[in-house]
Amino acid sequence: MLAKYSFALLASLATLGFAAAAAAGNPTTTIPSIPKTTVTPPASQCNTAPVQCCNSTTTAGAPAAAEILSLIGVVVQDLDIVVGLTCNPITIVGVGSGGSCSASPVCCDDNNFGGLISINCSPVDLSL
């Protein structure tokens, strides 16, 4: 019986020794994730004009946005898209030539909710 346990112990130690040697021979490399970079396009590239000036932006899944979307009966499939809250259009004359927005200038795909919310927004640069 003692021989049986001795053999099992010896086999386990040998396996552990081989695994440690293999791991030492093949070091692993951890590559840090590269942060995403976003380029803010000029307002003139907003294909769904007019550019909006929103008091704030958040995701569709955020509590404030989700509540507004629910109240107006809009279902958004992707809760990670950016929405603008309390938005007003910026005239095209002002874009690129002194247009101002003290909050969040954005270009949104759907602005048909009376300024309450704009859906699928991207930030834009008014100075370009």
Automatic annotation (TrEMBL):
It holds the Pfam family Hydrophobin. The keyword Signal applies. InterPro entries: Class_I_Hydrophobin (IPR001338). This is Hydrophobin. Residues 1-24 form the signal peptide. Belongs to the fungal hydrophobin family. Its main location: secreted. Keywords: Cell wall, Disulfide bond, Secreted, Signal. One of its GO terms (cellular component) is fungal-type cell wall. One of its GO terms (molecular function) is structural constituent of cell wall. The keyword Cell membrane does not apply.
